[in-house]
Structure formats: C-alpha cells, structure tokens
C-alpha cells in the first residue's frame, strides 16, 4: 500500500470517528421532535390495559395495529379467560381479540405478509411458556416453535424468546435471551415450516455476542437489525448470520421497527444515569439509507428530573404518520402524531 493511500485511509478513519462522535451527541437528546403525544389512554380493548411491549402494523395496507398485552396485569397466569392479542383501527377502535389461555407473558409480536400474527412468550411456569406462537386471523394457533417451558440452548428450546421477525421469503428469526437470562443469548433461524436452520451468537459484549437481544427488524435489502439492549447497540447481519456493522447512535434499544421507506424507529425504554449515562429515554428515528443518521427524538414525558420513573415505550411501530409506543410500566399503548 502506498503512503498516499495509507494516509487517505487514516484520514477517512479519523473523519468517521469525528462524525460518529458528533452523531452520538446529536442523537442522544437534541434531535428535532415533530410529534406530539395523544393525551390520555389511547385504544380501546374492552377493559383496562395491562403491561404492553408488543405492537406491529398489519401488512394489508389498512394501517391497523396489532398489539399484545398481559391480561390487565404483567402476566396472564390465572387469567385463562382473558384475551391478550388485539387488532385496532388507526382510530383506536377494537376490530377483534383472541389468545385467551395461550400465552403467559406476551412480549414480541410480528404480523407477516400472509396474515399470520406471531407472538413470543417470555413467561414460564409448570412446563408452559418460552415458546413462539403463530395465529391466523381467526385467532387459531397454526404453528408453535419451541419446547413448552424449555430452557437451555437447544435448537428448539428457548430461554426467553424476546422477539420474532419473518423475512419476506418466509424464514423465521427469533431473538433469544430476554433480560440476558442464563447463558442463552443468540439469534435463531427457522424455515417457513418451523424447521431449525441455524443459530448464531453467544453471551458477551463483542461482535457476534449479545446480552439481552431484545428486538428484531429487517430493512428492504433483507438486512436483519438486532437490538442488543444490555450492550447499548444495534448489530446488523445478513440473513445467513454474517456480521455487517454495529450502530450505537440509537441508544439502548428495547424495540425496533422499519417502515416501507427504510426509516428505523427505535424505542429506548431504559436509558438513564446508571444504565446508559448521557442518554435520555425516548424514541429515536433515523433513515437507514443515509447510514442511520438520527433525525428525530421523541422524549419520554414521564421521565423524572433524576432520570428515574416507569419505563417508556418498549415496543414500537409506525404507520400513516403516527408512531405507537407499547409501554410496560405505564400499562398502555401510547400514540404520537405529527404536529
């Protein structure tokens, strides 16, 4: 390598570091906020909301919202007659509900292109839970992945499945390791008929390592985004599990959503002085095509001056100019609309 070429590489690397530092400072707390929060409890489910971390948008163009919550509490144990999966219109009106007696603690949700609705269960008791269920539009379970109450790191045994995403081609990706439990932090891949293909990752802080992989999303090029929450980063992979990049400008990711224009929405429900110093809790939004530059920050209005308080939006979705934040601590689905 010539001296001039090597110098060019060094200059480019230095410039990248400066830009990254500037972007991090901008993304933390000071990006523009063109949204305002809809006041009060939004969305009607026929009863009081429970803890809510799962929200997605129907793929039929209706703008309808799928949401799973925890039976009016923080779990569905003892509430076998209470539905936990709901379809809402953009107005908040209830379309349908189902799921009673099937899920102990709904956590992640994904609406696929064929009308299937997938929900991960991070609850476990008496040999139940720790599975991923696919419902059809009538609320019938048509596929289940995972051993009931399973633990460890077997191909179909999950120690807390946090989120799920189905690729356009039908392959199924599941993030395992809710709250970093045990030594089972990985991404698993299954075929469209539920057969195990591969897994990658282990517990840690390095590349191809995870600590509480909490959220999944996929862009228009098929790149998989993994919200590696305890490590305060997003790791990017191709669909074969080959590492591409690490993004840290979105804070501490609890939820991820990518819309049809390749805009990334990241819900940071945990940043505070102890967990992620210098970063505020809220929702960060940025364009993937320009390298993930964060352009919008919706701060958590429930945040107390000392950085404490109940967690903000954990699940995230967006459609028709509105952003939906699923909140565990406040037990509600919050809606944000453009000013």
Features:
four-stranded antiparallel beta sheet, Neuraminidase, disordered N terminus, 339 residues
Mean pLDDT reading: 90
State the total count of DSSP E strands.
28
Structural class: mainly beta
Task: Tell me the CATH superfamily.
Answer: TolB, C-terminal domain
Low-pLDDT windows of residues: 2-19
Tally of DSSP helical segments: 1
**Order of SSEs:** HEEEEEEEEEEEEEEEEEEEEEEEEEEEE
What can you see in these coordinates?
- With 339 residues, this protein is mainly β.
- The chain has a single domain, classed as TolB, C-terminal domain (Neuraminidase), CATH 2.120.10.
- The protein is built from one helix and 28 strands.
- The strands form eight sheets. It has a four-stranded antiparallel sheet, with no helix packed on it.
- The longest helix has 27 residues.
- It is globular.
- The N terminus is likely disordered.
List the helices and strands and how they pair.
Blueprint: H1 3-29, E1 35-37, E2 52-57, E3 65-69, E4 85-88, E5 94-98, E6 106-111, E7 117-121, E8 124-125, E9 128-129, E10 132-135, E11 141-145, E12 161-166, E13 172-176, E14 186-190, E15 196-200, E16 202-203, E17 209-210, E18 213-218, E19 224-228, E20 233-237, E21 243-247, E22 255-258, E23 263-268, E24 282-287, E25 293-299, E26 313-319, E27 322-327, E28 332-338
Summarize the structure.
This protein has about 350 residues and is mainly beta.
């Amino acid at each position: 390598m010539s001296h001039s070429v090597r110098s060019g590489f060094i200059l480019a690397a230095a410039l990248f570091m400066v830009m990254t530092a500037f972007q991090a400072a901008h993304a933390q707390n000071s990006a523009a906020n063109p949204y305002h929060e809809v006041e009060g409890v939004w969305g009607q489910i026929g009863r009081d909301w429970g803890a809510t971390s799962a929200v997605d948008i129907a793929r039929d163009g209706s703008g309808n919202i799928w949401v799973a919550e925890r039976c009016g509490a923080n779990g569905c144990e003892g509430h076998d007659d209470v539905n936990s999966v709901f379809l809402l219109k953009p107005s908040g009106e209830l379309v349908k509900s189902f799921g009673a007696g099937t899920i102990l603690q709904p956590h992640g949700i994904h609406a696929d292109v064929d009308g299937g609705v997938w929900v991960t269960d991070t609850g476990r008791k008496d040999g139940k839970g720790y599975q991923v269920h696919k419902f059809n539009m009538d609320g019938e379970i048509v596929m289940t992945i995972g051993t009931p109450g399973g633990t460890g790191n077997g191909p179909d045994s999950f120690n807390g499945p946090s989120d799920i995403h189905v690729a356009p081609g039908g392959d199924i990706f599941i993030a395992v390791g809710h709250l970093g439990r045990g030594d089972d932090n990985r991404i698993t891949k299954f075929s469209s008929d539920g057969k195990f293909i591969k897994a990658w990752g282990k517990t840690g802080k390095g590349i191809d390592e995870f600590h509480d992989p909490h959220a999944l999303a996929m862009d228009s090029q098929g790149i998989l985004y993994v919200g590696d929450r305890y490590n305060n980063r997003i790791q990017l992979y191709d669909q074969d599990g080959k590492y591409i990049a690490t993004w840290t400008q979105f804070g501490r990711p609890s939820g991820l959503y990518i819309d049809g224009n390749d805009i990334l929405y990241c819900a940071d429900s945990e940043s505070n002085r102890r967990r992620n110093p210098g970063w505020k809790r809220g929702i960060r939004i940025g364009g993937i095509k320009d390298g993930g530059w964060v352009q919008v920050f919706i701060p958590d209005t429930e945040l107390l001056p000392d950085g404490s308080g109940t967690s903000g939006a954990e699940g995230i979705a967006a459609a028709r100019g509105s952003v939906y934040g699923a909140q565990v601590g406040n037990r509600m689905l919050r809606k944000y609309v453009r000013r």
